[in-house]
Each structure stands twice: as C-alpha cells, then as structure tokens.
C-alpha cells in the first residue's frame, strides 16, 4: 500500500463552495481520509500550508486522441494540473480506421497522419490507450466526421440510408464499448453537407444510454442562432444531454452577441440538459479556412505544407511580402493551420463566467506551433480570470474545471475532493499559478503547479514530471449516473 498525506492544505473540493483547511490522505488510488488539519502533522507528510488542493482538472474539450498513445507523458496537460482529457471532439475522433475510401480528409488531419487511424473499432482504440498507459485519464467521444469518412466514398453530400445505418451501428458498438458520447463538427466542409436528419438518425443511438451529444456548431458566426436551434433539436430527438463546444461569438459582425447566445442556452436548459465549454482566450485555432480569411481578423499561420518557412508569421505580413491579397496568400499556403484573433474580451468573459460553462482547452498537440491554450488554459482560468481580474471566485473557477465536467460526463468516481473517490488531485500555489505560454512562445509550462496525482500516482512535483503515469482509459458504465447539466 502506498500512502501520502498532504497536511494543512486549503481544500477547494469541486462543489464551488469556499475552501477549508484539512489534512488529506491518499492510499493507493483513492482519497482515503479528509481530516481537520493537525497541529503536528506526520513528519513524512507534504507540507500544504499556503497551498491549495483541488480535484485534478478535467479538460472537457481536447484533440489528444493519439497524443495519449504516441506521447503518453502528456506533459502539456499534467504541467497545468489536468488529470483527465476528453477526446473525440468536433466530429474528429481517432477510434477507428477512416481511410478505406481514400486519403485522410480534413479536419481529421488535425489529429495526425493517416497511419495513426489504424484501429478496427473503438474497442481496439481503447485497448491501445490501456497499453500506452498515459499520464492522464481518457474519456472518449465518437466523431461524426470520422464515421462519415469510414463509410462514405464522398463527403460533399448527405449520407444514404444504408450509410446512416452503418454509421449508427458503429456508434452503437462504440457506446457499448464505453464511449461517452457522439460529437459533430458541422462547420467543417466534410460534415457540413450532412443534413440535420442524418445527424438525428445517428444520434438516436444515444437514447437510454445517458451518453452526450457534443457539437461544434454548424455556424459560430452569423447563423449561430439557427445552429444552436439545430443542436438543441438533435438533443431533444435523441433524448441526450447537449454540450456546445467552445461557445463563442466569432468575427467582428458577431461581437457583443454573447448575451443573446447565452440567453438561448438558458432558455433551452429549462426544458432539456444543455451546457457548453469555453477556452479562456480571444483567439481560436484550426485549419486555415478561406471562409475565415477577412481583413478584420488577424491570422497567424502555425504550419503550412506548401510554404513551411511561413509558419509563425501573420498572414497579412506574408501577403504583403508576396505582393498579393490575403485570400490569394492563404490559397498558396494550403493546406495549413492558423490562429484566428476573432473574439472580444467582453464576450469571452461573459461566456466563461456563465454557470453553464465548463473549461476545455481545444488545444492541438500535433500543431508544431500550437495555440498557447494547449499548455496554459487551466492555470489561466485561476490566475488571470479569478485571482487577477476577479471575474469569478477561485471556488467557481475550480468548479468549472472539476465537479461540473465530472457531473456532465457522468464521472461519478472523480471530480471532487471526497473520501472514497479516485485520487486525481492538483496542488498549487494560489499566488503563483498562471499561464506562461504565449502566441509567440506557445509551449512554456504553466507556473505555480506544485504537485499532481492521477489515480494516486505522483505524476508531477516541483521538480517537474516524475515520469510515473497513472492514467486510465475510462469507460462509460452501462447505467451511468449523470447528475445533470
């Protein structure tokens, strides 16, 4: 039996209530006891005085599908206190072979090369995660675009009845094997041709499972109201909780609409389980999309197959050097990745602070120059938004990153500092915690993280990652208990 005591620490337990002082004992992989702080703690305990102990952070929106296998140390995540990652978002998932009908389509390339998509089915992918033994726990969704690429010979059309049947069968099999839900990325070209009816047909597999429907909306710009209505309708049809991915008001014409959008979310939540995730930055990141190339949005190129030397430069500077307009320069760079400075602080503040919002990094680990959210999201929420700006309390910040996502995804054995639960914990200095990654230097580890335990395994100390990996592939139980959204 292994035993660790963190003594005299301030505990934020994930419920959103104020901190309390305690001695917390870990035995093997669980939180064994939480006692009033002793005046004379054991000599072999960790001195937690002046530090905060919280549940390990749950990254509700990632694209770490293959990172957890190929780079299982998960350094970008454990150095910011993340102990669980949710993969398979935006319709992009790695849990099955998708190249039977040709080359790897966009945006699946965001996860890696075609050779990474080598698993026959979700169960095989889950077993590969088990074998890799990553440093973080893994919660997996099944992606709509991945299903389309697996079963359709062309993605610029709606699926036929036979194709829908085959996709739904794969989704059902994955849910039976422990997948936590179904995701879509309807804004992307290779999913945009799918009708609402196609998505509804697939989503019917979610009924009576308590699995979720997570969606990158069909539009995050001018048509966002219709896109939200579509998402809510799909959730109602499938009798499934809805999570709107990386909710935002993208592009100058949408600035200031966050109040309207959140009111829609609140109204929907009166009749069905609805929530959202948000990353704490005013820039997004994805493939270089010609539809988003507009003069009012500064764009940084993160990679380019055609012009690799332009990585790290602003599109406007590249276009100026080439003596051409933005769109022509973007076409010449394709395929490429980009960071879009397309949001306002006031909209991000309003969305991030909302009671229905949990935190997801949406980072791209395969990007050679990733958005800083990959390395900094969770310490930024606490350091920048809670401590420095007072947008919400530290208790609320931690709730958004622990208990709330645990409840939404039905993770009944973690997400809180509570006796008997899994010992997924993060210890940090509340005065020092913060993000240090920037758009120009995006892979700098966060500050202020003192210790991380994943299923009781000491994964990080002040000296850095220990090399020990305690993560697990989490599988949705047959009869999960989701507390609601």
Jot down its keywords:
485 residues; alpha/beta; 15 helices; 20% strand; globular; disordered C terminus
Give an overview of the whole structure.
The strands form 4 sheets. Strands 1, 2, 3, 4, 5, 18, 19, 20 and 21 form a 9-stranded mixed sheet that branches. The chain has a 6-stranded parallel sheet with strand order 9-10-11-12-13-17, with helices on both faces. By secondary structure, the chain is α/β, with parallel strands linked by helices. Helix 7 runs parallel beside helix 8, helix 8 runs parallel beside helix 9 (258-269) and helix 10 packs across helix 11. The chain contains 15 helices and 21 strands. The two termini are 37 Å apart. The protein has helices spanning 67-70, 75-78, 122-132, 144-151, 161-176, 189-192, 196-203, 224-238, 258-269, 315-322, 326-333, 345-353, 373-388, 394-401, 403-409, and strands at residues 3-11, 20-27, 30-35, 46-47, 52-55, 57-59, 82-87, 137-140, 142-143, 181-185, 212-216, 242-244, 274-278, 284-287, 299-304, 336-340, 357-359, 425-428, 449-454, 457-461, 464-465.
What is the structure about, briefly put?
The chain is of the alpha/beta class and 485 residues long.
Structural Rg? 22 Å
**Biggest β-sheet strands, sense, barrel:** 9 strands, mixed
Per the principal axes of the C-alpha atoms, what is the gross shape?
globular
Q: What is the helix tally?
A: 15
Percent helix, as a range, is 25-40%
**Average pLDDT over all residues:** 96
Q: What is the terminal-to-terminal distance?
A: 37 Å
The SS-based structural class is: alpha/beta
Unreliable stretches covering 5 or more consecutive residues: 480-484
In total, the number of strands is 21
Proportion of residues in extended strands: 15-25%
